[in-house]
Amino acid sequence: MLDKGPVRVLLVDDQPLLRMGFRLILEGEDDLCIVGEASNGAEAVRHVRELAPDVVLMDVRMPMLDGIEATRAIAASGSDAKIIILTTFDLDEYAFAGLRAGASAFLLKDVAPAELISAVRVVASGDAVVAPRVTQRLLETYVRGAGMDPAGADGDGGQRDGADGGGQPAGSPARPARDPLLEDLTPRENEMLGALAEGLSNAEIAHRYFLSEATVKTHVRRILTKLHLRDRVQAVVYAYETGLVVPSNADY
Length: 252
Description:
Blueprint: E1 7-12, H1 16-26, E2 32-38, H2 41-51, E3 55-59, H3 67-76, E4 82-87, H4 93-101, E5 105-108, H5 113-125, H6 132-143, H7 151-154, H8 187-197, H9 202-209, H10 213-227, H11 232-241
Parallel strand pairs: 1-2, 1-3, 3-4, 4-5
């Protein structure tokens, strides 16, 4: 990140005061740079193409094009920009929809300044996800049952429904067919994918398997390449949606 210069950030929200607040916080850091602002999803997609930001802070509810659809469009465009969804509640169906659409993390709108700064740096680095155990909790909540899948909110029609319509009990997790791409993973990479799904950091994975962090990073990079995933959080979503991780029945 230091070799490439400051992290380039795009602010996307239809509330000017919120954008101003985030700008004041982030511009005080030498390694962060605000390259532009957008007030709706359509502007965000255009600015990503024109300004090539490293990180996009993306609101969800906006006019013209909402943040979920904008995230999906940016991810589909092949952009390297990492997207952080801004939500109101930590167990928000829109946060889950954003992760499914291609976002790398989510943050609450009332996030503390220090946490916001850290989140932008972490997501830009690609080494970890923001609040991994909260992300895990979110996924367990929304992947757990058919009635909780927010596909209607994100508009993709439910690419992996939580019930097969053939008598599977309501509220039980789906049992999708095994993805053929998983056959390309080595036994060690399968272990690493499981650890990622638990929300473990590189350091925690290295400690568990007696590996160096550099080796863990190499495994993670190979997993993402083989499974055609954008980043670590997409690997976590993938693990839940393909049934590699079965959500617990604990209440949150």
